Amino acid sequence: MKNSIPLIGMLLFAFCFMISITSDERSVAAQQQYTDVTPGNAHYESVQYLNELGVYEHKSGNTFAPNHAITRSEVVNILHALYGNSLEKKRVYKTETLADVSPADPHYYSTVWAYEVGIIDGNDGNFNGNNHLKRAQLAKILVQTFDLSGEDDHPFPDVKDDHWAFDYVSILYSNGVTTGHKGSFLPEKEVTNGQFASFVSRTMGVTEVEREEGIAEEKDVMEAAVRFVKGDVWVEKGERAFPAEEGMVIFPGDRIRTENESSANVLFGNGSKLTLGHDTEALLSTIKGEENNIQVDLVEGQLWNSVDTVETEGSYVIDTPSSTMEAKGTLFLVAADPVTGRTTLTVLDGIVSARDNRGDREDESNEERLIGMNERLRGEEPWEREPFDPEQFINDTHSDILAEAIRDVQQAAEEDRRRAEEQQNRYQQDRNRGDLLDALVQTERSDALHQIQQNVVAKNREKNRERELDDLLKERRYELIQEMERKARQSREELNKRKEEMIEQAKRDGIEEEDIDAAVDRIPDIPDASERKPNRPGGSRGSGGGSSGGGGSSGGSDPDPEPPESPHITGSTDGNHFYIQVEGMVSEAVLTLYDASDDSKIENAVLEGNRFIIPIDKKSYYVTQTVDGTESESSNIVVAEKEVKPPEAPIISGSADGDYFYITVERMEDGAELKIYDAKAEAELVADFDGQAYKVKADGTSYYVTQTVDGEESIASNIVVAEKEPDPIESPDKPVITGSVVGDQFVISIEGYDATAELHLHDASDDSTLDATEYIMLFPYEFMP
After folding, report:
1. With 90 as the cut, is the pLDDT of residue 270 above it?
2. pLDDT of residue 729
């Protein structure tokens, strides 16, 4: 169609003009509408309802095909869209049960999800996703998905009581989901897209299940998921056992089992965490969200518990064959002997109540016992509460749990320090004495937790297990021991200074000393177990190498002089030698280097100033200092090994190609092993890699990549988001203009432009845009000077 619009302007000299058009780049998102499902269709309302819930995103185009048979893959895709739990990250499952389902299958996640939660079973080890769904199969899937129950009878003669689907069809019939067709059920008849929509919609109406709540919330189930897996870990759901994977959803009744040298973490929706040691079996019997209740039945093995503060009406309970323990905001370890069932409880923070649960005892063992910070309850009878022994803890605790415990204690200490600062600041504003006293308690607790951590680390170091512990921390992407110790020392210095300031302020503000003492005494004193007396060759400490002999000692001798403070040492290497730097050295002190494995003195060790130079032999060493014949306690221990620096983080960039997104990795080191992570979930993923780029779906997921060289993993790369390329904006056609003189004015006529387009007038000599305000618009694009 030709349009001619006059533009009138005053011409003092000849102009040449050109016109360009800009289009509105905004796009309006609209819900998919299907042209073949109209209001007169029997399935119209059901299709519209499910469409509004977003379950048909796998369909493309505007055709629904209501009379076409639905495939099994389409069925699980719809159900997963409705009820896939929010904690389930997109991951590669390790199930080998469904041989014809692979990660390359577009329905992979929904299929294996449906298998794991018991909605489908497969046939002879295959899923047969392209096969059409039969009505008998539909009955089972609906009953399994919506957890339906009902009568065990129906009127359909074509599904007799010996038919495998008899019970499922009966349940559908008793719930009013199906009435059959002309007196029959037609179990082998294929289900159409429209029929499936109506069946699902009808069942949702019967059970009043809301998609927004999902299966977990509909059953008041707190979200819980596997967070870390090492080795062979199995999750038993009913009669099926599945290899545990990060992101796997855990429901009440699921049983988790670890094998030798294996461990796993379970993270609950309220922030609590459960760690299973090796050869451990536990049943998660209760995970209630609204009531904030968690109960775990420990059959055998060890469970480390990091319990977030439980509300007054909530509970966190561990049941063993012989005991029941309940905690409120605490860090504790429970161990159940696989043979006797005897339970040992170790509490590092908080309070845990414990009682014998066997029910056949009438003695005092049935009484509730409250076990507090830095205490242990022995499993032997009679039960006795005793102080926490860090060396015994090291000997009895599984290594993976030890790594979690050390890290969790540090986090708890830092959280208490943060709370103390908040309460002290609040006191400065409100002058509520309770805030200042609470800040004192939190400060004491933080310092005590740091001391507990220090005691465990020191005893672990004495056993030359620091490298082992660092490796376990590295697996979990936690800080290593030396960094934890550095932060703990710095934190404790700040805590002691803050404590003195608060006590002085409390006294100035008239708070009674007995109230101050009561606040400080609420937290038990934690003895320092990090120092030990090495067995020196040639005699006892302070004897100058001599021996008292068998003749006794002089009764009038002076008391032993105070030994100097133990030094602190750090290690470094230049690739050829290992250097032990000594800090805290007293003037005129004599330094001695020892082999920590057998406490033997290193003779002829090279000492330059305040550092020793030794070979890189992977042995453990400590140092003492002697002043006036009196030797100090031993320093901390260092291991003479090469410093392994992690590689640099790689750099990644991304580009989309249709439904896929390619993540190109740069700055890779030779021989590096790459890992790709979901940046939001911080979970490792499996994706196709061609040597230069990963291929993932363009679904909006954020990714980062690391590289590992010689067992050392780099920090994370930059993050890219796998998004599709935006649809290109189609440029409008170029308009055609003509000009003519009308009197003393020049008229420009335009052809071939979109009526909704915005027109711009340009000076062709310099491409500048003319200001339309210089013209008076009479009618669309008609101006007067």
Report:
1. no
2. 55
Select, from the ranges 84-93, 219-228, 526-535, the one with the highest average predicted confidence (pLDDT): 219-228
Q: Can the peptide bond before residue 534 be classed as cis, meaning omega within 30 degrees of 0?
A: no
- pLDDT (0 to 100) of residue 651: 93
Q: Tell me: pLDDT of 70 over 80.
A: yes
394: Cβ contacts below 8 Å, ≥ 6 apart: 402, 456, 459, 460, 463, 465
Element (H, E) at 250: none
Given strand 606-608, what is the order of strands in its sheet?
568-573, 578-583, 611-614, 606-608
Q: Do 347 and 331 contact (CB within 8 A), yes or no?
A: yes
Q: Per-residue b/e over 92-128, b at no fewer than 16 CB within 10 Å?
A: ebeeebbeebeeebebbbbbbbbbbbebbebeeeebe
Q: Secondary structure of 333-391 in the HEC alphabet?
A: EEEECCCCCCEEEEEEECCEEEEECCCCCCCHHHCCEEECCCEEECCCCCCCEEECCHH
DSSP letter at 181 equals: B
Indicate whether 44 pLDDT > 70.
yes
Amino acid at 230: K
pLDDT above 80 for 760: no
Residue at 551: amino acid letter: G
- Is the CATH number 3.40.1710.10 carried by domain 651-721? no
Return d(Cα 296, Cα 316) in angstroms, integer: 8
- 442-483 pLDDT, tens per residue? 999 999 999 999 899 888 888 778 888 888 888 887 888 888
Distance of alpha carbon 485 from alpha carbon 345, whole angstroms: 26
Q: Are 284 and 303 in contact (CB under 8 A)?
A: no
Residue range 504-528: mean pLDDT, rounded:
89
Largest CA distance in the chain: 138
Q: Which three-class secondary structure state does DSSP give residue 316?
A: strand
Contact of 570 with 638, CB cutoff 8 Å = yes
Contact at 8 Å (CB) between 96 and 115? no
Residue 212 has pLDDT above 50, yes or no: no
The Cβ-side half-sphere exposure at 772, using a 13 Å CA radius, reads 12
Looking at residue 305, its pLDDT comes to 92
The candidate with the shortest Cα–Cα distance to 34, out of 19, 47, 21, 17, is 47
Q: Tell me how far apart the alpha carbons of residues 725 and 268 are, in angstroms, rounded to a whole number.
A: 37
**Strand partners for 639:** 620
Q: What is the full DSSP assignment across 15-34?
A: --EEEEEE------------
Chosen CATH of 220-388 out of 3.30.750.24, 3.40.190.10, 3.40.1260.10, 2.60.120.1440: 2.60.120.1440
> 3-class SS at 402?
helix
Instruction: Identify the residue with better confidence: 207 or 667.
Output: 667
For the packed helices 72-83 and 135-146, what is the interaxial angle rounded to 10 degrees?
20
Single out the residue of 580, 584, 703 nearest to residue 651, CA to CA. 703
Q: Which two structure tokens, joined as six digits, stand for 618?
A: 């992977």
Asked if 701 and 743 count as a contact pair (C-beta separation under 8 A), the reply is no
Output the DSSP codes for 264-311.
Answer: EEEEETTS-EEEE-TT-EEEEEEEETTTTEEEEEEEEEEEEEEPPPPP
The count of other CB atoms within 10 Å of the CB of residue 725 is 11
Cα gap 160→164, rounded to integer Å: 9
pLDDT at 215 over 50: no
pLDDT at 532: 45
What fold is seen in the domain 568-639? Answer: Immunoglobulin-like (2.60.40)
Joined together, the tokens standing for residue 46 give 């059901």
